[in-house]
Amino acid sequence: MKNIKYNIIKAVALFLLVSSCNDILDETPDNRTTIDSAEKIAELLVGAYPDAAYAPFLEPMSDNAGDKGPSAETDDDQATTLNERMFFWEDLNKIDEDTPTNYWNRAYKAIAQANQALLSIDELNGGSEFDYLRGEALLCRAYAHYMLVNIFSKAYDPDTAATDVGIPYISEPETVLLGEYERGTVENVYENIKADIELGLPLIEDNYGVGAFHFTKKAANAFASRFYLTTGEWSKVIEHSTLAISGGVQALRDWENDYSPATYSEQTALYASATLESANLLLISAESSFDRYHATARYQLNSDKRDEIFPSANATGQPWSYSVFGSNDLYYNIPKFQEYFKVTNQAAGTGNAFVTYVLLSTDEALLNRAEAYAMLGQLENAAADINMSYSVKTEDYLAAFDELDIDAIQSRFEVTDPDLYTPFYDIPTESLAFVNAVLTIKRTIFYNEGLRWFDNKRHNMVINHEDIFGNIYTLPKGDKRRLLQIPEAAQSFGIEENPR
Fold first, then answer.
1. Coil, strand or helix: which one is 229?
2. Of 162, 176, 236, 289, which has the fewest CB atoms closer than 10 Å, so is most exposed?
3. What is the mean pLDDT of residues 28-35?
4. By three-state DSSP, how is residue 168 classified?
5. Neighbour tally for 329: CB within 10 Å
6. Strands 350-361, 280-287: pairing kind
7. In the beta sheet, which residues pair with residue 282?
8. 378 CB contacts (<8 Å, ≥6 apart)?
């Protein structure tokens, strides 16, 4: 396979020049040498998380999106273009907030900071007092690369990963102006991610003031759970999910008791709270205008998708605890986002909008474990996790009446289409309904957070989008558009574009 080299620093620098942003890549070597203490390394790691949103461009690509019609378009031309182009799986080369290019740039910026932290630790002779910082830096580097390879490369398949084109895995900070990097294979990227997780996770400590913005032990295990779910290592999924939850049902987001009785604004304030919601394991504050248009964008939650994702009764026979807000399908939404507007010019009244996003949660770890149990044929355990999830997301749930046994799950989630889910591995016949149950529950719980796209891609699901005229647009299995296009700025410096 031909090795493709390109200069990341140029691509990111071009982005920074256009957007007038300053970050670690602008720092001179002399400035970097001032990182001479654990406290300064910790400050550096604050920026080692991709501070960009992916839900705004992944959600309309998934099977969660419907067409509300032209009257639903927002006043934000950039948001309208993004929403429409993603719905039709078209390439979009814009560096605005909420775009794929912005995520690419911010993820590599985060990687640069993680690498600088690791170098600084080594330069300070890396004693045990730095172990927790090394662990965080390794997990940050692994997470950013994992997200990039899952967005811009093919879904992981061990049979083809050695030839599938990945993304550059950067393991050292920039030391020269024009450094070159290889766009490796998916196999190489995953091997490096795995190595960073396995080296970094045992070093993680819970010594943060506000842990939800860092890789705590639970957050690190939740990420490991997601990673091993992608690679099909089921026992490891169970191991890490269990460590991430470590509190049973009390660790989950209790929509029935905490959210359902609350007002819309109270729900949004609670959903991404770093202190009030224990289910939130990792959060990021990203410059984003998604809160302004997610309810009114044309290709979002219309009536058909509302009935599909939030039916009047779930598999227990009881209603979901979720309230779909909005008087009609032009405004249907679930309250999850809250904008913080940072004023940059008081006199002019201008500034930047920020939204806090949930990156990892106990709810996801639980359902990862349920899927892994199912794949190992441990159906009793899978059923227990499925019921645990329902118990805090279902209205008036009573275990004595609403709990689903193995037979009920097999019948209510029966899969009649053998080609519905076609991941790289075979799903045992007795496990198929359980996998369907997990993916169906996840679709509801994580609506509008972008996670559905990763399940669509991981299970190679056909996606059909229908417009208001009844025209069907299909994204077939294995379609090349499942790989988002490499940003043009990166292409211009030599990196090969994804095929179309």
1. helix
2. 176
3. 54
4. coil
5. 19
6. antiparallel
7. 360
8. none
In the chain, the largest separation of any two C-alpha atoms, in whole Å, equals 67
Give the per-residue pLDDT at 176.
55
**β-strand partners of 4:** 183
Cα angle 72-75-77, degrees, rounded to a multiple of 5: 105
Beta carbons of 144 and 107 less than 8 angstroms apart? yes
* Residues sharing a CB contact under 8 Å with residue 136, sequence separation 6 or more, in sequence order: 45, 48, 117, 200, 204, 214, 215
Answer yes or no: pTM beyond 0.70. Answer: yes
| Average pLDDT value for residue range 298-326 | 97
Tokens 């997780």 — which residue? 197
d(CA 14, CA 23): 13
CA distance 134 to 205: 11
Q: What is the CA angle 355-360-364, rounded to 5?
A: 125
- Which residue reads 């091997």 in tokens? 191
Contact 115, 181 (CB under 8 A): no
| Closest by CA position to 428, among listed 442, 410, 403 | 410
Nearest-5° angle of CA 342, CA 76, CA 152? 85
- The predicted structure's pLDDT at residue 1: 36
Both tokens of 346, joined, read 């008081």
Number of other residues whose CB lies within 10 A of the CB of residue 323: 17
pLDDT digits (tens, 9 = 90+) for 103-127: 999 999 999 999 999 999 999 998 8
Query: Are the beta carbons of 353 and 291 closer than 8 angstroms?
Result: yes
User: Exposed (0-12), middle (13-18) or buried (19+): which is 170, by Cβ within 10 Å?
Assistant: buried
pLDDT in tens, 428-441: 999 999 999 999 99
Query: Which residues contact residue 332 at a Cβ distance below 8 angstroms, ignoring those fewer than 6 apart?
Result: 295, 300, 301, 302, 303, 306, 324, 325, 326
Q: Could you tell me the two tokens for 490? A: 């990166």
Under a CB-based contact definition with an 8 Å cutoff, are residues 406 and 379 in contact?
yes
DSSP notation for 367-397: HHHHHHHHHTT-HHHHHHHHHHHHHTTBTT-
Contact 112, 27 (CB under 8 A): no
Element (H, E) at 406: helix 406-412
The β-bridge partners of 358 are 283
pLDDT at 36: 85
Radius of gyration over every alpha carbon of the chain, rounded to an integer in angstroms: 22
Residue 175 pLDDT: 62
140, two tokens: 């940050």
How many other CB atoms sit within 10 Å of the CB of residue 189? Answer: 25
How large is the angle between the packed helices 186-200 and 217-231, nearest 10 degrees? 150
For 384-412, the pLDDT digits (tens) are: 999 999 999 999 999 999 999 999 999 99
Give the mean model confidence (pLDDT) for residues 63-73: 93
Q: Tokens 């558009």, residue?
A: 481
Residue 354: strand pairing partners: 287, 340
Question: What rounded mean pLDDT belongs to the chain?
Answer: 92
User: What stretch of H or E contains 281?
Assistant: strand 280-287
User: 331 near 101, Cβ under 8 Å?
Assistant: no
Residue keyed to tokens 């919601």: 277
